[in-house]
Structure prediction request, 94 residues.
Amino acid sequence: MSVTKQEIKRLGEMIYLDLTDGESVRFADLLNLVLKKADDLLSGLKDKPLRHISQLRNRMREDGVGIPLPKEKVLANAAETQDGCFRVPRILED
Prediction:
């Protein structure tokens, strides 16, 4: 599928844009490029289902039990503490 300069001109008229011939050619080329990329992407879907656009995978580490941090070290960077716990602003009204 491709779009011609005349189709772009007609579309411009429909939305009250006065496009020059150069602009019509440029927009037609850009739209054709987008349509080609979409077609390439969709043609790849015929071979196998698309799960991810890129083949990058997350590197996950195994969960494991470790030595917990001391409570004082955990609370050291807290803005406010109360009775050995984090103190946070109330967000719900009574």
Notes: Residues 5-47 form one domain. The mean pLDDT is 86.
